[in-house]
């Protein structure tokens, strides 16, 4: 089966809605995971002593940090969403579209944490947003959808 | 200089190759319809029974360690813009290895994202 690129094609419309939902989840979980891991490791502090005992202490602090575990859980959810969306969407669609996180994270840092963003970064953020917008106008799948493998559960399809 | 170029190339090609292999494995699995937690676990379990998934995973691990090595002597403000090329390499791989149709609009989007990611990190 080959999909047409018509925006009113019902399969195309269904895929676009599913793809957008999973991409939003990817951006949310990926960004949250990065921020939480970074925060967790900063709470633990920089590794300055490379002795076995000191490394063991850092390892223990890492493994018992709730923030680190929240970060790892968030990144695991990101990876699951990534695998699911690739079961139907083009890699050349998902890869650039997921770069939206490069827009969201600096914007969150700017609005919520009051971080400064240089002019050149604003230009980069603008280019990514326009690029993601361009990719978003193309059909999410151009190779045909293979539905047989999970058709047994199609009754619960969304 | 040669060592840096070599490691940038390893990061780009191993990560892109890994993601293309993982995409191939998920396409062989087929479109997921059921998003109940148990069904999703089943999808992940079936996906990891495919050789392409493990091959992709291995390449991603290689890319991750090459990135760590690169970051040990280069600044992140150089490394991330340099590896932003992986968006363009990914689109080429998707076109020629996965048979995806990358039209002009998608190419324009990919190239803008490449440039944008480079600027965000360089700035």
What's a quick, concise take on this entry?
Chain A is mainly alpha-helical and 158 residues long. Chain A is built from 6 helices and no strands.
Please specify the SSE layout and strand pairing:
The complex is a heterodimer of chains A (158) and B (123).
Chain A: H1 10-44, H2 52-63, H3 66-86, H4 91-97, H5 101-112, H6 119-136
Helix pairs in contact in A: 1-3
Chain B: H1 2-29, H2 37-47, H3 51-71, H4 76-83, H5 86-96, H6 104-122
What does the model show?
The complex is a heterodimer of chains A (158) and B (123). Chain A has helices spanning 10-44, 52-63, 66-86, 91-97, 101-112, 119-136. With 158 residues, chain A is mainly alpha-helical. In chain A, helix 1 runs antiparallel to helix 3 (66-86). Chain B has 123 residues and is an all-alpha fold. Helix content of chain B is 80%, strand content 0%. At the A-B interface, helix 3, helix 4 and helix 6 of A face helix 1, helix 2, helix 5 and helix 6 of B.
